[in-house]
Every structure is written in C-alpha cells, then in structure tokens.
Write a structure and sequence with these properties.
Helix content: 25-40%
Distance between the termini: 52 Å
Number of domains: 3
Strand order of the largest sheet: 2-6-5-3-4-9-8
Largest sheet: 7 strands, mixed
CATH architecture of the largest domain: 3-Layer(aba) Sandwich
Structural class: alpha/beta
CATH superfamily of the largest domain: Alpha-D-Glucose-1,6-Bisphosphate, subunit A, domain 3
Number of helices: 18
Bound molecules: 6-O-phosphono-alpha-D-glucopyranose, zinc ion
Radius of gyration: 23 Å
Strand content: 25-35%
Oligomer: single chain
Shape: globular
Amino acid sequence: MKIIVTPTQPYSDQKPGTSGLRKKVKIFQLAHYLENFVQSLFDTLIVPSDAVLVVGGDGRYHNRQAIQTIISMAAANGFARVLIGQGGILSTPAASHVIRKYKTFGGMVLSASHNQGGIHGDFGIKYNIGNGGPAPEKITDEVFAKSKVIAEYKISDLPQVDIDTIGETQFAGLAAGQTFTVQVIDAVQDYADLMQSLFDFKAIKQLLATGFEMKFDAMHAVTGPYAKEIFVNRLGAASESLMNCEPSEDFGGGHPDPNLTYAEDLVKIMFAGENALDFGAASDGDGDRNMILGQNFFVTPSDSLAVLAANATLVPAYAGGIAGVARSMPTSGAVDRVAAKLNVPSFETPTGWKFFGNLMDAGKVTLCGEESFGTSSSHVREKDGLWAVLFWLNVIAVKQMSVEAILKAHWLEYGRNVYSRHDYESIPTEAANSVIAHIKAQFASLPDQVFGNYTVKLCDDFSYHDPIDGSVSNNQGIRVLFTDGSRIVFRLSGTGTEGATLRIYLEAYEPDSSKHHLDAQVALAEMIQIALQISQLVEKTGRVAPTVIT
Ligand code: G6P
Ligand code: ZN
C-alpha cells in the first residue's frame, strides 16, 4: 500500500454542531471537503498501531462513496482494521454497541440523522470515541481548529473495497509485514442480540400474539432491517406491523423525523378514532430517535423518559433499579419527580447526547433522555430508538395497560409537566439572532415582571459544569423561569443546515388531575403568548406560526 500525500486548502465551515458535522450533500461533494475533515480528526486523535475503527451510516445518499474514502484514509493514517456494517449500514445505536462490544478505538457514524436525504438533502459525519459515545467538545473543538489550517491529507492507493459481503479483506499495511484489514460484519445481529439480552422477549412475544396491534414506522430509514429482525423474526409480529421498512437513499423523499408532523402516515393510523391501533412508534434516519403513540394518544418524549424511569424495574436489565437519570435542560422536569421518589440523583445537561457520556461512564446515571425524541440507557452511549420502543412494549406487556392509561396513572401519581415545543425552521440567521439578542437585553428587567397569571423569577443563559471532568459549557439556551415552576426556554438549533431554527420550549406543572386531560396547546396557551411577547418573534421574523409543534 502506498500513501499519497495530497495538498489541500482549508474550508472555514467545518465546525461540528450538536451532533457532528452536517452539511448539504453538495458541500460534502466539494473537492477534498470530506478528506479535510477526516484528516483533521485523525490528526487530533493519537492512533495506536493496532487501532480498529468502526464505520457505518444510515444508508443515505453519499454513504457508500464516503465510506470508501474513509477506509482509504484510515489505512493511510495507521489504523490496523476497519469494521464496517454490511452495505455500509449501521444505525447510530448499533454503531455505538459495536464500538463497545469489540472494544475498538472509535467509530465514524455517517448520518445527518433526521434531516432529509437524497442528492439535494443533507449528509453528516460524527466521530464516536472508545466508550461508544459522541466525541466530547474538547475533541470536536480541536478538529475544527485543525480544519482551519489543514494543508495536506493522507490517503492510500487501495482499490474500492467490497462492503456488501460479510468477511475480511486484507491488504499489505504501511510497513513491511503489516496488514490492513477491512472486515464487513452483519449490521443487525449484534444489536438484535443486545436487545434480546435487555428485555423480556417472551412477555412481549405473548403480548403481540394476543391481539395487541402495533405499527412501527421506520420512515424508509436505517431501522427497517433491524425492525424486521427484532419484531418479525424474533418477536413473531405480523409483517403488517411494520411500515416503510425498506431503507432508501432519500428516505422515500420524506423527512425521517419521528414527530407528529413528519411521521404523518403513522399519525393518521394511530389517530383513526375507534380504528386506531394499540401502539405506534417511529424512528428517525439513523435510528436513534423514537416517537411513542398510543391509541389516539401522543406521548411527549419528556413524559416517556419519566414513565420508563418509573417502570424500569419491570424490565429484566433494570430489575435491580437505576443509578440515576439525566435529561437535557430543555427537557421537562417530569423525570426529576420520578428520581426524587426513587431517591436517585437527576442531572440537567445541555442539549446533545454527548453530555451524558461522562455521567454514564462514571456510573452516575442509567437512563437519559431529551425532549428531541431521544431516550436511552447505559447499554450504549447513544440514544436508541428501537430500545425505547421495546422498553414500552415490555412495560405494557407486564402492566397490561394501554399507553394512555399508563400516562394517566403516572400523572395522577406525580402530577403532569405539561409540555410543548414550537419550532420556527429556516428563518434568516440574522432575524433569529436578533430575537435572541432582544430577550438577552431584558435579562435585568424581566425578573419580578408579571404576565397575566405568571411572574418571572429569573432568566439566564444556561451553563453546564460537568461534575465528572469539570468542563464548562456556556450559552446553552435562554431560560425564563416563573415563580410557580413554569418556564419558557429559547434556543437556536445546532443541527439545521439552512438558516436558523429557533425553538421555544414551554413547560407548566399541573398537579390538578381534573386538568390532566387538556390538550397541551390549550393548557399552555397563555405561556405561548408570553413567549411571543417577550421574544417579539413575529415582529422580528415575520413568522406568524411555528413550522413544527411537538
Ligand atoms: C441531535 C442530538 C441530540 C439533540 C438533538 C437536537 O439529535 O443527537 O442530542 O438533542 O440533535 O438538537 P438541536 O440542536 O437541533 O435542538
Ligand atoms: Zn438521529
């Protein structure tokens, strides 16, 4: 094998966001764009001579080409072996598991998650460290710094590698006597085995065999093959229980984001009145998000996390109890109430799964979740869509209650943290920044101001002090906290690729069970108006309604 040192020019925009580097496909296709980023990453890492790299993606457009480039560059940068999911496929949680199971050096996940795919859509690359989780900011910051001054990258003269046939291909390594191996593994098997080891498959199988009707929507994305193996082959579900389970490079032209807006087909089935099924769920492009629906009933991700924490001991893997919980700041405090009752700690981190890694590695938390449809546990270091679906099925199988009944009982016991998120997508960056600046300018004057039934207690820009490594992350979202415990959070998304997305997170605690049936938009109507008043969003952006409400 020969190393080709190729001169290059830096790009100025390779700053990883909330979850890796995400750009339009056409940006990734610019000369040396991917190579620059990969070399900046390899130059940041200290790669030992026996290092193994996992590579897999969600199968979106550009996945295969990118994988060939990464293999060639890994060989030239001293990796001994690359583990690839068959066909270049690995869901994000499966990649995390493979990194952990085979104790590899790290892995690259090629995905833009829930963003649209296809030639006009998005592509992305994220590096995960040896614990299976997203690289922390100290690595991503250094990669960005290196990408701004890069002058050359190293690539090898390897031929195209067959990534569709399970098995090993060996090449002569960099030095005499060394080899470089590309190993293609079954993308599904290890992950399906892991799920079977965590949950009571016997109980779920029985539930599905006794008239309980479910529908899982893979949204034409990566979880299709995983769902077939787990639900149909291992749990005996009817094949009609699955929809959109053939992955495609453009996700069937859709937007693979499991929420009430984009998982429209599933939502129709689950809100079909008397004809609605018992249970519906969907996952996103790379399989780490989940949406849970009951019969004519939507479970907010924040409530989902709280319910799973409260019922964890019903699942074999967590029968001994949980060490603690963590949630991102904008996620509702519902899970905190469960933690308090269980007498375990709860942590509040910034948005981004990477912030949970240290807490899990230190054994401080078992379950984590985010309002952005992410839930998972320490079985991997990513959020895990199918895991959440199986957890719910396990709980339903044991409790023999409907999704709605489980939620109502939960609210009765803990009170309800009424919650909603309003997204304003693709607004001009300047307009979004001016909204944020406008709210910040009121930091001193807002406290003690009265808005209808609400009085502002304090407002700040959230900072996180990592209790494990002492690192500090500032500017993680604006919080307006009210005296009764309600709050409004304003935050700019770190995952979009077009203009800016402004998110408004609304939360109000309702202890009164006679009001628990209220639609969240109705219950939060006054807070929504306060959010618009404080932010002057309509005036500054010209937008009169959110793009997505969850
Ligand atoms: C990704 C990350 C999550 C994060 C979400 C929302 O899915 O993995 O951890 O919560 O993006 O990020 P955003 O910055 O768009 O609100
Ligand atoms: Zn995702």
